[in-house]
C-alpha cells in the first residue's frame, strides 16, 4: 500500500514537472518571438524552443531533476515502532488506552470506516485513522505536528478526526453512554456517603476556534472561545449522559434546563 502511494505520487510529480517545463519553454519561445519580430526574423524554420516544446511533450527530453521533491513522507514510526515495539504503558500514555482496547475499538468502528483503494492512492488503514484521531484528541499537538508524526498530510488528520468521531457517535454512543442501573448507582453513591444520589452532574468548557458569526456568544467567563459540555456520571465516574453544543457564554443552568436529561426528569422517566 505504501509503495503504491509512493509510486503514484512520483508519477504525479513527474507529470507536473513535465508540464512546468513545457510551460517554461513556451514562455521562452514567446519572448524569442517578441524579440525577433522586432528584428524581422522568421522563426518558422527554427529548431529551438518550438522543437524543444515538442520533444518534451513526446517524452524525448528529461524533465528537471526532482530536487525539491526528494523528501518523502515516512510511515515507519507508526508501522514499525508503535504497532510492533511500544509497550502497554506507552500506549496508555499516548493514546489513553491499552493496545488491546485500541484494536477492539478499531474492530467496532470498522463498518463505518472501511474505505476502498483508488487508482490514485491506497486508503489509510482503519487502525491508522483511529490512531490519528485518538492522538489528536489525547494531546495538544497541532494538525501539522500530528501529520508529521504519522507521515500523512495535514488535511488527512482533519478528515480522520471527523470520520472517527462520526463513527463513534453512530455506532457506539447509544451503547456506551447509557443511564445504567439506577439502583446500583444510588447504592454506590450511598456507600461513598451520598445517600439518594443517582448521579453527579457538571459542565466543562471545550476550547474551540472562534466562529466567523456570533463569535461573542462563544466567549466564556474566562475569556476564551468554547463550547459547553454537560456530563452526568455514575459513582465510578463513568459517563451516563452527555449534552454538548451550547456556546460558551451560556450559563450551566440554562444548558441543563434545555437538555434531554432535564426533560426526562420532568416527565418522571429518570
UniProtKB/TrEMBL annotation:
Residues 201-265 form the DDE Tnp4 domain. The keyword Metal-binding applies. Coiled coil: none annotated. Keywords: Cytoplasm, Hydrolase, Metal-binding, Nuclease, Nucleus. GO terms for cellular component: cytoplasm; nucleus. This is Putative nuclease HARBI1. Its cofactor is a divalent metal cation. Residues 88-169 form the DUF8040 domain. It comes from Chelydra serpentina. PANTHER family: NUCLEASE HARBI1, PTHR22930. Transposase-derived protein that may have nuclease activity. Does not have transposase activity. Belongs to the HARBI1 family. Its main location: cytoplasm. It comes from the Eukaryota. The keyword Metal-binding applies. GO terms for molecular function: hydrolase activity; metal ion binding; nuclease activity. It is found in: Cytoplasm; Nucleus.
